[in-house]
User: Fold this.
Amino acid sequence: MTGVALDALEVTAGEDLLACYRFNTRAAKHHFCSRCGIHLFHQRRADPGQYGINIACLAGVSPYDFAEVPVTDGINHPLDSGGRFRRVGTLRFEPADD
Assistant:
């Protein structure tokens, strides 16, 4: 995920296939493809002025473009845990030699 301002996101194709899901506090709006189910982006609960975007869905960007990606626990939301993200590790991409 990467964050951008709400007005910085432009859906260029498939907007008619978007579905929205809200859970728990119902504050975040998670948008996904109603056909394949992939999570595309969400309006963030921690910062409603931003979208969190699945970078794998951006034209010209690959998750493999990033040598290291910080990983949070995915359980404890910052608004429920004193305002901090709980980092649990780092995901590293090391290309194969062959």
About this structure: Residues 2 and 53 are 5 Å apart (CA to CA). The first strand starts at residue 2 and ends at 5. The chain has a mean pLDDT of 86.
